[in-house]
Specification:
Strand order of the largest sheet of chain A: 3-9-8-5-6
Number of helices of chain A: 1
Oligomer: heterodimer
Radius of gyration of chain B: 19 Å
Distance between the termini of chain A: 39 Å
Structural class of chain A: alpha+beta
Shape of chain A: globular
Number of helices of chain B: 9
Largest sheet of chain A: 5 strands, mixed
Structural class of chain B: mainly alpha
Strand content of chain A: over 45%
Order of helices and strands of chain A: HEEEEEEEEE
Helix content of chain A: 10-25%
Shape of chain B: globular
């Protein structure tokens, strides 16, 4: 049990470090970058920074994600591990312009 | 912009309208006073504006997943209130204090959840006056359609015999219970508290989540076209718990009404 706990103790920071962070900015109701590439079968932390004064909802049916990012604020969304493919996402409040996709390679 | 705001507001209002109409109809069938409804809805609206005003700080909680944690808690409170309500109906005689408590809790929290999203969405446009008008018009149309569907459900239930009315209400409440747990599970996966898994199936080709039917099914039964195994498992467990309690409650209720 003690060995196991020591193992978990040392592994925990590793799993935290192992989660790559990808930043996406929202400016003038557009995503920058609008296309992001991530490796297959890997969990990724998306840090979405909303530079606009208006709120935006990061949404993706393919990724099963939905989160309001308040104006001039940021939000975290975890995605993956995913198989290879393309996963579109959009800003629900400004869907005409706010479009993007996650490409899993 | 108009069509988009119609859809966004309709989606939020539909979920709230469904819960409110079923609970109103249930209280009507149980001959309970609806006075508390207004107070609960007002409290819900007040809390929704507080939630919307503090969204920035809520989002920053728990390393950026505060929204998910708070929303999951709201869904779990609604689920608990619905379960308490189902149990209260099965008491002999009906535990009216518990029914009213559960109904009030459910209404207030449902309004916080859906109302805050409406406020956040509309608030964003106050700084752009040229868009604001069409957004507001769209919001009214969306809310109008949502309310109409709620009114339809209310009269559908109220016009049945009291026993059938309670049966249908309980049936819809069971489905809402499942939907709440499914949404809570989804948020916990998004916050990386529950592990992300490959979807159990993909029914997007049959009923798209983007379609009107998909949206309606989402509000009614918590429909997801690509649910993960853990989500389906929790959904089924919550449906089973709610169904068993509802069947037990209905037996006592039938006995109460025939007595």
């Amino acid at each position: 049990m003690r060995r196991f706990l020591t193992f978990v103790f040392f592994m925990l920071p590793l799993t935290v470090i192992a989660t790559p962070v990808i930043e996406i900015e929202i400016r003038n109701h557009l995503f920058y970058p609008s296309e992001i590439s991530i490796p297959a079968d890997t969990k990724v932390k998306l840090l979405i920074i909303n530079q606009d004064p208006t709120a935006e909802e990061f949404e993706s049916y393919e990724l099963n994600r939905e989160k309001v990012i308040p104006g001039n604020s940021k939000g975290v969304v975890f995605i993956g591990p995913l198989p290879t493919g393309e996963y579109p996402f959009f800003g629900e409040f400004f869907p005409k312009t706010a479009q993007g996709k996650v490409i899993v390679k | 912009m108009l069509i988009n705001s119609v859809i966004i507001i309709l989606r939020e209002v539909l979920e709230a309208a469904l819960i409110v109409s079923v609970l109103l109809a249930l209280c009507h069938n149980l001959h309970l006073s609806k006075k508390r409804f207004i107070a609960s809805l007002l409290l819900g609206a007040l809390l929704a504006s507080l939630y919307a005003a503090n969204l920035n700080s809520i989002s920053d909680l728990f390393d950026g997943v505060g929204q998910e944690i708070v929303n999951t808690s709201l869904y779990l409170i609604i689920f608990t209130c619905l379960i308490l309500l189902i149990i209260a109906i099965g008491k002999k005689p009906i535990n009216t204090t518990l029914v009213l408590f559960a109904v009030s809790g459910c209404l207030a929290v449902a309004l916080v959840r859906e109302g805050s999203e409406v406020i956040i969405y509309i608030q964003g446009f106050t700084s752009s006056p040229n868009l604001f008008q069409s957004v507001l018009a769209g919001a009214f149309i969306g809310a109008g359609i949502g309310f109409s569907i709620g009114v339809f459900f209310y009269y559908l239930i109220v016009n049945l015999s009291p026993l059938n009315g309670v049966r249908l209400s309980l049936f819809i409440l069971i489905l809402i219970c499942g939907g709440m747990i499914s949404q809570a599970t989804q948020l916990l996966i998004q916050a990386d508290i529950l592990a992300s898994q490959a979807p159990l199936w993909n029914s997007e080709g049959w009923v798209s989540e983007r379609s009107m039917i998909g949206q309606l099914l989402y509000a009614l039964i918590g429909y997801e076209s690509t649910p993960s195994p853990i989500q389906v498992a929790f959904y089924l467990i919550s449906l089973a718990i709610a169904s068993i309690l509802a069947i037990m409650s209905l037996r006592t209720f039938q006995f109460n009404t025939t007595e």
